[in-house]
Structures
1.
Amino acid sequence: MIELLLNALGGISLVSGLFFMFVGSIGLLRLPDFFTRLHATSKTDTLGIGLIFIGLIFFSGPTQASLKLVLIIFFIFFTSPVSAHALAKAAFKGGVKPFQINTKKDHKDG
Amino acid sequence: MAEFLISAILLAYLVILSIAIYCDDNLFSAAMLMGIYTLLCAAIFVAMDAVDVAFTEAAVGAGISTILILAALSLSNYHKEDHHNIKKNTLQTTVSLIITFALGILLAFGFHDIPAYGQQNVPAYQGVAQHYIHQSEHEIGVPNIVTSILASYRGYDTLGELTVIFVAGITVLMLLGYGLKQKTNNLPNTIELQKYIVLRVVSRMLMPYILLFALYVQFHGDYGPGGGFQAGVILASGIILHILFYGHKQTQKVIAPEITCYLMAIGVLIFAGTGIVTLLQGGNFLEYNVLNPNNPIQGQHWGILVIEFGVGLTVAAVMLSLFYSFSKQTKD
């Protein structure tokens, strides 16, 4: 009974993690600018990986592997947003301009 | 069925990725794509149950190799606009295409004779491999058979690998040196602190755990995937993290480039020295049994421990010295 519950929770976490990774990939493909794409992928990928690993923890139960998975989740939560921050800083320093809607044209027409 | 599907999907990704690397004009993004390629190869190795190889491939390919390529690219005069000016030479591309296709067909002919994955009546599995798999527990007593083969049964080959890494390190030192003597733009440290505060704080928090993990991998190689090569690469990655966010001046107070020269040589000396010690004790070269005549298995453990330490030391020193050579030569 408890096994069924653990498996079900693991399955739900895996599927939701998969959903977030999918959303992040759609954002990576469809968003217009580097900074917006970075924003989408960093948030969704961190959350997606966290959820997938929580699902794996449910599947493996109270073993040494679960402890290692918890440590990996901590590491990912620390490093993934910081690396996104480093990317954004490097891009800003390198001169990548954020995407701007062309407001001058609206003024001219209107 | 599921394994076949996973392997097929990963291999299809590899093909798509290689086409993407070819079509990409920007060398920096091509370098990143090559890092992803290596990571996919590591996933394929895991799917094939070769975790030691996958570990080394992920650590070296997706970590150190990518950052060294990026450092070398920033060292060169590469600007993104340059590639538009290169005229396409159709004769050159046609000839190279024909040669590549011919080599690919030769490769396909070569692969035709290789036995299927997992077959048992193949020459590679008969003979010595049977002895290693069945006798490793009694003769060496180390749970991880990969480590026992790498460090004890085939220790001489590992000494050769280590010497190759050492020679590569020396060659880069001879060609590039440790950087220009004068640096024109040497900002003091306190100005940088406010600009890079997030990166510095987090890297300072993470670095002890990365180095600790490297030590764990070094000495855990007997029981799980690990060993000297992976540990050396992870150690070098931790120190490179510090260099990236704190600059060369801070890091060289701890590990000067000249020290890495000595560490490179000391690692190889430890490995070969163990062989000489076993010679002096009366056994063959790298026969660890004679290190402890009362308890040969303990002698094997001692031998594996010492040579893995030598391997880790040299690999870490070589990777660090390569990064020093590539990164200190930038014009700013």
2.
Amino acid sequence: MKILVISNLYPPEIVGGYEIQCSQAVAELRRRGHDVVVLTSIPRRPVGQSPSHVLRLLGTPDVYSRERADLKSPFWEFEANLLNVENVFLLLEVLRDWEPDVCYLWNLVALGGLGLIAALEYLGVPWVWHLGDAVPALLCNFDGQLPALGEVMGSRFSGRFIACSQTVLASVERLVHIEGRTRILPNWTMNTVPMVERDYFGGEHLKLAFAGRLAEEKGIFLVLETAAQLLASGYSNFSLDIIGAGLLDEVVARISELGIEKHVSLMGWHPPAEVKRHLQQCDVFVFPASAEDPMPLAALEAAAVGCVPLLPWLSGVSEWLVDGVHCLKAERSPEGFAEVIRAVMDGDIDLSQLSRHGAKAVHESFDIEAVMPDVERELVVASASTWQPNIGLSDDFYRIALIADALLRQHILEGQQP
Amino acid sequence: MIIELETLRNQIQVQAGQIEDLMMRIENLTVEVTSLRTAHEELSAEHTAVPQLNVTVVALGERVHAHEQELNDIRRGLERFGGSIMDDMALERRLRNIEDRMSPSGRNGSEREEPASDRFET
């Protein structure tokens, strides 16, 4: 199959797991013999020589820059979510020159994603959209949500969806109805083994870890308050390693306020392979992701090396791992998390069994080799709907895009919603 | 194994309905708490000028506090309830995965039956 992948970011340009999963899927599909080209954005910094199958051509406003987010203009949001005519033109050119059998879509935020989808629909190009986040709903935004646009998307778009969790599907469904066309497949990890050789907590010193972006929604401050709760209740034989980058100044300040400096190590950002090696030395992976988090990879990667995840009852990853079998779950609060950790430290919970079951489950259900056949199947089914390049249709659509761009910009200037 | 899966599916459906009921109760309680809080604030502002309202203000404040406690308990219960549904979901998926691995055709490349929640529908 010839597969055109479209993603707003692509390694080494990354923000989180969504782009990493995209590149892993590309590598695995190529390994399985498919011809894959990636169409992604122009990088914000030099990235060295890109492989020949990665085309860094698409323009984006810098949606992930905090400074730009404060200065954004209405045209910036328009181009990011709704329509970027330059990107539409580039896509039409690539489709005409390369003629993929199917388009495999990833994060389309910042690319004028709706315009790209519309182009595929107009030309009849089959597509599968891999949702590591509620991107269809995110795109239906301009100065607020656009429910009417979401309804049109849900009723007119013909493609198929892969969602990494029921959680992310529910987030999309609030604006765009796609449930009947969605396959739920988990995020994956790589290079797993069915059994992990490691030491287990024996009652002396409990090693806790957190790895991920240091951000409110990832629960980093809740983790720190959990540590404070443990100390306050007389439990001090633990350490907490924090791996990642983000709100570092705020985290340092909070550690000082809570008086937990002696128990916390800030380790900074490390490459994924190093993080996994470190987690193999830790006992519990404390990860109070928010209820809307689609499916954080970090918890899977911790379980893969036998570091037992401690998760909130509600989150995208909580619907894939069973409490008391593969992981531990708690109410998403410092009290809730501390209660479970105290039970571990009191010897009421056997981490070794959870660790072994978790590693086995990740190897069997969440290794990329276990998940990718289902992804491949979706792409094959979608590609059964063939299409033919048509210069006339491409030119027609580009004309439509230019007109829409001019009209919508005029609407914006007049203070109206598109 | 199949019977167990069916049982799990039925449990999930029942629990989903119960969650809906709880969420409606939360909405109603939230509205009531908001109006009680407003009344309490208004009366508190009058409190210093009208001492005989003191008892009413205190009683209202206690009612607001009691409702907030109940709301928090319900939210916590709902979260725990949702968590048990998540566990059911994870268990069902894991059981299905184990079934696939144990089936004669194996998992890779086989056309396996998908349950309704994950089935692609045209």
